[in-house]
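Amino Acid Chain and Its Fold in Token Form
===========================================
Purpose: to set a sequence beside its fold so the mapping can be learned.
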Amino acid sequence: MPMGIARTAQGPVLYAEEIQKYYDGSPAARWLALASICLVNLSNSLTMSSTNVAVPEIAKDLSADAVLISWIPTAFLLSNVVVILPAGRLADIHGRKRVYLTGIIVFTLASLVASQAPSIEWLLFTRVLQGLGSGMSFATGLAIVMSIFSASNRGMALGFANAAVYIGMSCGPVLGGWITETLGWRTIFMFPVPLITIAITLILLRLKGEWKSETPDKVDWLGSLIFLGWASSLFLGVSLLPSPSGMLCVSAGVAGLILFVYQQTTTRYPLIRFRAIMDNRIFSRSLLASTCAYASNFPLVFLLSLYLQFIQGMSPAAAGKLMMLQAITMAIVAPFAGRLSDRFEPRIIATTGCLIMSCALMVLQHVDVDTSLHIIAAALMTLGFGFGLFTSPNNNAALGSVDKARLSIASALLSLSRLMGNMTGSAGVLLLVSIIIGNVELEPSQYRALLEVIRWVLSASCIYALCGAWFSYTRGNVRSPGESGRSD
């Protein structure tokens, strides 16, 4: 029986096979649909990265204390994490486009309210709503890409979707700083609205059909609450390490995780089918490779920002432009790497990417007070090249190995692996900074200690990248020997 049904704007019911024929026969429709998803990814990542630059101005304007201000990025990330899995299940049950469209509408409305927030409490509330909307769109976006593109060009499409995220993350700080200085911090929340309006228009006009499972499933709301509890505790605990309260929160998070795994293995309609994931070697190893790759990459932006400004004496704008080299290189390479993974074995391309990342990290871990900026620039571009080779083929292999009826929850799990990798990387930074530097201001007397932190963290990042390469290589072949994707 065909998977899922859909209604076009004209009304007739279409089955999944007919939807696929529509997109296969209409390149303009699928590329415009992809453009809408890229615009949403760009807007989400722009808002996420540019807001951090405006935090000092927000604190001044809204008379907010340090504790409340620290929740501006945290509220967004935490709500993003906790909604991803329930959103993925809802999308598989009730429709991917429906959940995706709901998510970007919630994000847009929350952004409009945030731009007019009269107090820090209102702003934090809207940040939670933004995170919920963003999580819903990230949980379903890649699944929609997999649904509308044929096997011969899915990798390239996933590459463009990934590139949009990294363009937003790299341009966000520079753009956010300029907007804050010239137009005020409230404009940061207004800036993505025109982009998302175009995306919504394209979705309504060009994203025909709907995708959902015909299996009568239900959402595991109890499991969702347990997931919310342990993820929140772990997330907050990581941010508080190595204080006693941080250790307590992390312990509670680990206990909650154990309870969550037990509950998921005993309930009838779980959010995560752990046994099925373990049985799917390609998908499970792809998740582990993703977690390791993001854990290796995430601490770099923060640490290099400190290194370039404090030790090399660069301005924030100049440091930001230099660090953009990594993201720009990744954005250029990712679509081509995805295209290669349509034709050749993805694990070879992704594994090569992780090995290149580890080489770049080995170079960066030896930075000193007099390291040439040309060496740092070359290492950053090499790192971006390796990360670009990894992301699209890894996502292509992972999503291509699951049943079409489970694509949304698989996409959500990939997004969750990225966030967990980011949390793992940031936890290492927080822990080492607390142990080696301590709770003091960064002054010239502390620069040697900062270099020691950088070397330890980047050594760990190199190990993470090598682990990612191992998981990537050992997942096995996606296609049988001798088979390659056809080109259009």
Q: What stands out?
A: Residues 1-15, 481-488 have pLDDT under 50 and may be disordered. Strands lie at 5-7, 13-15. The radius of gyration is 22 Å. The longest strand covers residues 5-7.
